[in-house]
Design goal:
Elements lengths: L2 H10 L10 H29 L7 H31 L15 H10 L23
Helix pairs in contact: 1-2, 2-3
Length: 137
Amino acid sequence: MGFGEAIASCFRNYAKFSGRARRSEFWYFRLFTFLASAGLLLVIGAVGAAAGRPHEPNPAALGLSFALIAFWLAIFIPDLAVTVRRLHDTDRSGWWYLLLLVPFGWVVVLIWICTKGTDGQNDYGPDPFGPSVRIFE
């Protein structure tokens, strides 16, 4: 799955919490959110620095800050959904995402997200790679 296809898939499945997601779909969406956020932050910083008045509010930078917050709100549900589908691919319930609320729980969730999904069908749906084909039996 390519970068653009993964982003489109995440937005197409905006609030779909069932099924499974490949590692590439998850990580490409994370890369997209990181690059978009970093780009907006750089523009906000450049606009703020161009004002030359550090102690006065800059309306343009403030407007861009609201755009960044709107972006984060817009990707919150798709990000949550793709993470839950990624956990489903490892044959775990999406409720394990709440482990992030526990200190160092993010380490366990990160390990699960990085591991290969289960081969074949599991409790959450068919394999995103399709049926496994064995050449040598």
